[in-house]
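hiii so my PI (J.) wants the whole complex modelled not just the main chain, which honestly fair. so below is everything: two entries, each one labled with what it is. i double checked the lines twice but i was tired so who knows lol
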Amino acid sequence: MNDMTPIQTTLKDWETDQEVRWCPGCGDYAILKAVQRTLPEIGADPAKTVFVSGIGCSSRFPYYVESYGFHTIHGRAPAVATGVKLANPELDIWLVTGDGDGMSIGGNHTMHLLRRNLDCQVLLFNNEIYGLTKGQYSPTSRVGTSSPSTPGGSVDRPAQPCAFALGSGARFVARGFDVSKELSNVLKAAYYHKGAAFIEIFQNCIVYNKDRFEDFAAPKGAEGSQLWLKNGEPMLFGSEKSGGVKGIALDVEKLTLKVVDVVDGDWQAAGVIVHDVTNRAVAHMLVEMPFGPFPMALGVLYDDPRPTYEEALLGQDATMREGKEANLAKLLAKGQTWTVEA
Amino acid sequence: MATVLADDDSAAVSREQTTPEAVVVRFAGDSGDGMQLTGGQFTLSTALAGNDLATFPDFPAEIRAPQGTLFGVSAFQINFGSTDITTAGDAPDVLVAMNPAALKTNVTALKPGGLIIADTGEFTKRNLEKAKYETSPLEDDSLAKWDVLAFDISALTLESVKPFGLGNKEALRCKNMWTLGLALWMFDRDRAPIVQWLQDKFKKNPVLADANIAALNAGHAYGETAEIAGPLKKLHLDPVPSPAGLYRTITGAEAVSLGLVAGAQLANLPMFFGGYPITPASAILHNLVKMKEFGVTTFQAEDEIAAICAAIGASYAGQLGITSSSGPGIALKGEAMGLAIMTELPLVIVNSQRGGPSTGLPTKTEQSDLYQAIYGRNGDASLPVIAARSPADAFDCAIEACRIAVQYMTPVILLTDGYIGNASEPWKVPDPASYAPFPVSFLQERNGADGVLPYKRDERGVRPWIKPGTPGLMHRIGGIEKAIDTGNIDYSPAVHQAQTDARKAKVDGVANSIPDQEVCLGDTSGKLAVVGWGSTFGPIHQAVRRARAKGLDVSHIHVRHVWPMPGNLGPLLKGFDNVLVPEMNTGQFKTVLRDQFLVDARPLNKTSGQPFTIAEIEAAIGAFFDNIPGNEGGEVDADATQLPSIKAVNP
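here's the output for the full assembly
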């Protein structure tokens, strides 16, 4: 986020005159709408908002948002965004990337942007596939993914974007998925976090990786498969209908998380953990929590701000400039000089 | 005690009673001996004495190569005198060799009759073995054609710093100052600025300052004694007649840094510099971090790609984005340069060229990135390229690069090289007010009936620069092909044709804003034009001067704007019967000239990592004047250590 004066806008104000060119039914449409719905709610100023993207389906995003936008090159959006923000810290930067763009070709830049803590929102659309290049497996594809480049199934283990982000030093890590009603709230939380805010958004590529996330994203059974984390609230999921209310507790013997049954609503008795967004150790466990034995951890997993990169760097520059006069003639004549008389 | 091993009266150049116009001195030692420091301070004292000068620092890629080895030798050559000096000199008159390895790797370059000053204290059995000497060259007759002054500099240094109670290792480190003291005596130089410098350098450790000053004084005093005993003669070179004004010495890296700062000031823009450490370009980053008060932001990126991309981001946001690297890093930046070309954002890319390909020769010089600069990107991706000819010239070139970048909304490549970057020369400090400002104006209001048109071109084909944050001018840009005016995604056939043509026409049009090509020396037509670009200026200029003095019809043309080239260059070249292009590559500019102007340009190529010597170019010029009076070729043999280098011209 930046400290801009809230502006009154509507969803319509954030739409461009450009025809949206994603495949019909693509999850990107839902994410676009969620963003366009969120921007008026946070009072964003279109003139001070910049969407920066790399290459891939997700990276066409800036063309559809009526703000400033820069569609850059594959993987390098974090680097371009760093230059934009350092040149003008008043701009609010939204970085749009994908699993190939942000985790593969641009993995290095993603790491350094998070490590430095540049103030911006990083939206990583994870569809576990290369869509724009027609369906090759990606660094987040599950083992065994059959694709044009891996007809026998992929053999390499997938990267976990949220674990990567946390490991890189991110101070805000969140998860959502394209059609979720909660996505807007996650975007808002990311916006209000001062510093690099990383959101992994599971996105349905209906052409090359259809319904990859249905096992937890489908409305049916969602209660039992989604753990929406809320700061200060117990980590509960499920209902009587889905097979009982359950919670996440700490297995003290093994120092791991475990799923426990909650009887008669008494989650304290079951040892269910209360979510503390500033607890980095628990955040590490949440991002690694495997879906299947556990529900999918969604929402704000971690949020504990630290001073931002641009504040530190530009602040130091300001200190270095203090009391110094920008006199070019003097600068050129610095060092040992001599005069040749006429 | 001094041991004068060679005392051949007839051979001693240094004994000549007449004062030469110029002298070349080479300091060579182990990479830990502080030879670059000695050379740098000797350069300063030379400048302060009012002599013109040119230097050539030559050091290994390893930070501390194993002591005493041949590949660990670090050398610093300076050419100075009472006339205009434009090269570091071909063959040294004086060689200071701090150990056997330094002697071995440098002695063949020395002029016959030249003076060798050697530290016998380092000519131990072990060091001789490391230098692959079977017997000590100081004790056999292998150095007979030179004058040798060999004595135990190590012991004399230890003696001179004894009162300061330093450890043996620390005490021996003062050797370079002892040697410098002797050199200052030889050339009648004032010690005071060096003493001042030592006091500043060792402010926190006055004992070290005193010890170094004592060594300096002892070396100086030794000169007096040696003058009586042997081949050493004091030599005074008169100051060179120069235009009146304030002078300083400047290296190419300093000149580029200052020129970029001046360029940003003239454009009235803050500067954003994105860099990643690489030899020999890092010096520019190191310089700019000290100039923050000029609105400079520096960013050490995670890699070369991020360095340029951040600079592009900053340019997009309204600052002057600059990035700098050397060949391998420039290769990595290629795709991003295409982005800046496509989005039409200003950007300056400095390439301090080094020997290649791949890692190549990190600390040696070459001009082999010309193709990379002009052609080295995917797609039809033309951008202006400027080449600096000398350290001082790099200042003006950096300003020119900034001007073209902001006036034409285009990335511009500024080529220097390892030689220009590290070498220093006297520089008449310019008055910033003498440069015409080129302030940038950003688009503030809609330029179209229905809204903002970010790709609406003016009469020169240049689009407006629009800063994000400007109310009402929201728009999207990107690397994908775009519609005329609106910049919306559009890669239909007619649009790509039109935009490709428009981008090319814009860069070609830069030629309208640059001066006509001048002839630096000689007539505007004739038998032979020697055409150069970049750091070959010095040796070409001297070679042409010498050839003309002999009556040969030869001219020197040096091209700063290598892309697009000045409009009159083609007709100018066609006025000569022959065109010779000396380059430190395999003939890249020669090919460009042939392609652009259909002239029969002949190559003279050298890729040894060393600059051309004057004699090498003189010899090549001579080949065009067979059977013509005055054609004797080079006056001085080409430096044997720099061979094999010359294939001469294709007959």
